[in-house]
Amino acid sequence: MIDSPLLYLLSIAAIAALFGIAERHTKTSRYFTYLPAVVLIYAAAMIAAQAGVWQRSEAIDSVYRIAKNNLLPAMLFLMLLQLDMGRFVRLGRSMLIAYAAATLSIAAAFIVVFALFGFSGGEVSMFAALCGSWMGGTANMLAVGSAMDVDETMMGYALAVDAVCYTFWVMLLLAVVRFAPHFGRWSGAVRSEEVAGGIGCACTIGPKRYWLLLGISLAVALVSQYAAEHLGGLGAATWMVLIATFAGVAASFTPLSRLNGSNELASTMLLLLVALIGSRAEFAEPGSIPLYIAAGFAILAVHAAVLVAAAKVFRLDLFSIAVASLANIGGVASAPILAAAYDRALIGVAVLMAVVGYLAGTFGGLAVGYVLKMTGS
Fold first, then answer.
1. Once rounded to an integer, what is the mean pLDDT over residues 231-258?
2. What's the rounded Cα separation, in Å, for the pair 217 and 367?
3. How confident is the model at residue 282 (pLDDT cuts 50, 70, 90)?
4. CA-to-CA distance for 329 and 337, rounded, in angstroms?
């Protein structure tokens, strides 16, 4: 049993590194297409915790809090450095409407399904965190979950629902690609390729600046924590997330956004955070997972119905609504894969939408969470 805080952190890093490296390795990466590394990292850390690998002590608890409170705002800041609102607004009418319809339909679906299933106030934070993920990504899930004080076990339920529903959704959207011409004739759409072609991403140019980015992001983490402790109303965790988010958005308009390496560094922090949270989880009532998964599929059904209706009203093609949907639910990891199935020249469109989700996911997840809190009380 590990009782040293340093060995605890090293073991957490080892778990994150094992699956993180495997996900990027050419020989094993295909196995992570439908089951992301974050899910496996969480599961491995949780199993290790249940097996008693780490001893719960005041010293380890303190290290856990310090690591989590510093990594989370630093990760949010780095992910938002990639934001390019100028290019995003130039995507064109069809893509912007599709993205707005996808995001708003997800929010509405969470609220409707939460009420229909009769969930209680104790499950609000879990569904708010899941909503953050389905509007942005796992980073937003952790941000919203932290702001709404979701415990490690409920975060595990959210990750389980995310993994199952996400896998189904990716396979479904890839399967319907061949029906794009028929869908376009039904909706009377104008081809998105003619509107959004040529959009690209130039966020990986030049030498990597890991140490500079690490220093800046940790400084943002320090400032956000200090400021959050002196602000009232929303709670320190919520303020910390919001301050780091605003800092990232502001920095995306500066030369800092052109520093290469922010994506890799933020992804590393994300894997470490997931391993940390998994190391504290306890699945006391795993029988609830099927109900939560059923709710997840119901949310996807409502989301799909609204998107199809929007496509008919606004004459959108299948590419627009499908990529907008997966940019929200799948993020940067999978939206470009779907875009490439239509046309490799459109991969940049998917990347831009997914990166904007890093911003929308935090605010959208928090907004839905507060609505659910009112309906679930």
1. 84
2. 26
3. low
4. 13
